[in-house]
Amino acid sequence: MAVSPVLVLKVDDSTVSVRARLYDDFSEHEIVLNSVITYWWANNMPPATKFLELFDSVIKRTINEIMPHKTLNIKYDVRANQVLDEASEIEITLSSVVADDVGFKIEGGTVSLKGLKKIGSDFEPQEFTAGFDHNIETPDIVLKRYLEMKEN
């Protein structure tokens, strides 16, 4: 029986941790929420939208460090209290992660974040739901570097 790689998500009040594991090899990265949210606020960027972009990128990088790959497919559902650019709360449910046709077992696949955006007294929640299916390519030069790092 082949061993499936594992992707573990952990969330607390200040960080979202992404850890990929294959046999005894692992890689882990943390998203420090206070830092990135403050940056997005200061630069008038939509925090929920920017978080999803960062989330994809951190998963890609974490997996590439243990298992260099050309294509990563990530599928997740998002629920928010408003359209993403206006949302102050989001919940991401990760359903599938596949790197070059190798599926990952997902542990702790739900990320819930609140307080992403300051809301005024006139804010009226309108539930937003969407499914995302992203295929993210690793550029050849970057893949070459990950393969070199893996060999050493």
- The average pLDDT score comes to 91
Report the radius of gyration as a whole number of Å: 16 Å
The secondary-structure element order is: EEEHHEEEEEEH
**Percent in helix:** 25-40%
N- to C-terminal distance: 28 Å
* Low-pLDDT segments: none
Shape: elongated
Beta-strand segment tally: 9
Question: Which structural class should the secondary elements be placed in?
Answer: alpha+beta
The major β-sheet equals: 5 strands, antiparallel
Task: List the total number of helices.
Answer: 3
Q: What is the beta-strand fraction?
A: 35-45%
What's a concise summary of this model?
The chain has 152 residues and is of the alpha+beta class. The chain is built from 3 helices and 9 strands, in the order βββααββββββα.
Structural description of this entry:
This protein has 152 residues and is α+β, with helices and mostly antiparallel strands. Helices cover 28% and strands 40% of the residues. It is built from three helices and nine strands; from the N terminus they run βββααββββββα. The strands form two sheets. Strands 4, 5, 6, 8 and 9 form a five-stranded antiparallel sheet that branches. Strands 3-2-1-7 form a four-stranded mixed sheet. The mean pLDDT is 91.
